[in-house]
Amino acid sequence: MFFELIKTFGYLGIFLVSLISTSTIFLPFPLYSIITIASALGFNPFLVSILSALGMTIGEYTGYFIGRGGGKLLYKRYKKTIKKFEKFFKKFGVLTITIFAFLPFPFDIIGIMAGIGGFDMKKFFVATFVGKFFKAALLSYLGFGLHEILILYFA
């Protein structure tokens, strides 16, 4: 299904697959394989990285908004805990989000915690995009390298 999206829509398909795969909470999709394979099939790895990172970043707002809404609903009962999240994200938010956006870690947890902590939406976007871009770049250039090896080997 996802490879069909990429074959049919090209770069837009890469963006859509990235958006869809990160919009779901805690459901794994083979996104990393798709990014690598897209570049191995000849897609420009830089464009794959940018579009995939953009799609993943927008998709991560699902968790962020769940946390934001949940934090408001639970504020009276868990005020101390929510204040700790707010303090943590004011101090370490950008660094934490950027690092965890890069790591192969269930980022939904970080997005939910950032939302609960009331972390700024624009900063969340930038920090998430940077981490996701470097992860996508690593994967897409790996795919590009595989593409080059296959051309040399089978040419």
Can you walk me through this structure?
The protein has one domain. The model has no long low-confidence stretch (mean pLDDT 88). It has 155 residues and is mostly helical. It is built from 8 helices and no strands.
Key phrases:
155 residues; mainly alpha
Any idea what the radius of gyration is? Answer: 17 Å
Approximately how much helix is present in the residues? over 70%
Principal-axes geometry comes out as elongated
For the largest beta-sheet, the strand count, sense and barrel status come to: none
First CA to last CA: what distance? 30 Å
Q: Can you tell me the residue ranges where pLDDT is under 50 for at least 5 consecutive residues? A: none
Could you give the order of the helices and strands? Answer: HHHHHHHH
Instruction: State which percent range the strand residues make up.
Output: under 5%
- The overall number of domains is 1
Work out the number of β strands: 0
Structural class: mainly alpha
Mean pLDDT: 88
